[in-house]
Prior knowledge:
The structure holds two protein chains of two kinds.
Chain A: E1 4-9, H1 18-29, E2 38-39, E3 47-48, E4 52-59, E5 66-73, E6 91-93, E7 100-102, H2 112-115, E8 123-125, E9 130-132, H3 138-141, H4 154-158, E10 164-168, H5 175-182, E11 199-201
Parallel strand pairs in A: 1-11
Antiparallel strand pairs in A: 1-10, 2-3, 4-5, 6-7, 8-9
Chain B: H1 5-32, H2 41-63, H3 83-106, H4 111-137, H5 148-173, H6 178-206, H7 214-218, E1 224-228, H8 236-240, H9 247-260, H10 263-275, H11 278-301
Helix pairs in contact in B: 1-2, 1-4, 1-5, 1-11, 2-3, 3-4, 4-5, 5-6, 5-11, 6-10, 9-11, 10-11
Amino acid sequence: MTQLALVIDLNVCVGCHACVTSCKQWNTSSLGTGPLPDDNPYGADPSGVFFNRVQTFEVGTYPTSDTVHLPKSCLHCEDPPCVPVCPTGASHKREKDGIVLVDYDKCIGCKYCSWACPYGAREFDEHEKVMKKCTLCVDRIYDESIPEAERKPSCVIACPASARIFGDVHDPESEASKMIRENNGYALMPEIGTKPANQYLPRANKKTI
Amino acid sequence: MHPAFSVIFLTTLIGVSQGFFTALMIGQVFELSNANLNFGDNFYTVGALLALIFCGGGLVASFFHLGHPERAWRAFSQWRTSWLSREAIMLPVFMAFVFLYMLMSFNGAGTQDLLLVGLIAIVASFVLFYCTGMIYACISFLREWATPLTIVNFILFGCASGFTFASFYAALSAPALIETYAWFAIVFTIMSLGTRYWTLARNAELRKNVKTNAQTATGFRGRVVQRSQGQMGGSYNTREFFHGATDLFVKKIKSIFMVLVFPVPVVLLFLGMGSESAFILFLAFAVQYAGLVAERWYFFAQVNHPQNIYYQTVG
Lengths: 209, 315
């Protein structure tokens, strides 16, 4: 069974937020997911819906500390806790490719799925009153009207450092699987047992848990 | 978590309804076992109506929680996996049997038939209690909730407030039941004090043994401090998962509910039992219900959602 996912190389990510803005641009323009609202974008208390965030952490103790940028979007867990809790079946994991999606026409906006996601990957759209999240650009990766090389999630194409690798992590020969295998790829919050499909490649000079 | 008043009113109001209907049935058994008593059909008809009003109030409150209440019927579909779906089914099932009971009582049905329908309603009520509790208890990483105590507390709080209300109702329409109801209310209130205190102690221990932290959230060992959450403004993530109140306020809410839910109603129930005063018994219920609203606020506020680890520093 196919499991599409992202592998993010933390050695390479420079924290430029190009993936954040390209994600926002693609998905706010999409017929399927958009618009992604921004409230008071230039006001005192701005707020908006994003599917992807780049967060920055200080790791280690000065003078040997590192600044690590950690892009965070839905991890498309193999055992997603947000799916079984959904009372309407709007939140689902596709058999075909393992993408976790929300059917916006079935979502009643109860927010229970977001409580059941330990990563904060889901953001509620206060205008459309439904839960939204990363779709792995499902409306792009299968679109035969665009060149084959561009049938990847928007964030992957935008990354100037090629820190984001997209592929089938169940296919041992895919580039994504090879990168995970050869670079000790790891998952976030493994203790919770969600088995995230997205994996991170650790900084070569840092020990991981 | 950010406490939502819609869910606070839903869980407290249906609790009263479920406890009160249980009290009504105990009253009927009590009447049956005592040849000298006759409360009349109206006692049960009006009582069932009141239970429906409480439950209906909770149901209306729950709709305010939904972004698309007009699609709420879809929540009946995922009963195989979702406790929320199971609750959404059991709530109308419970109300339907209470409604049937009310109609039968109004039409002067026999005691046997009434008891049978009432018993089914009580079974539905306890399945509903279990579903409501499991909505919170089933999320393993929300550790303050992930305990059977969550379910026990919902049941005991529902019974305590329901029987307290029943003692007030008895003072108005069946004084022979005041003492029975008030004693049940006192016992349930003291039991809930025990389990709620146990829950508070358990959750205080949890803070000493944190499993999910900045290290597991990022994968790095050693010192990990967030320098930027990746956004200067707010978002759903910065609002939904934090109560936004000060530690002092949260502590005060805890003190308030520990006083309003337990000692004050017990004293008022004793006083009301002695004087058979409907006013004092109503006061016992009003105070306990206000306390339960505070208790439920605290129930949500105390949960430290793991996603908050990713939203510590604006940058």
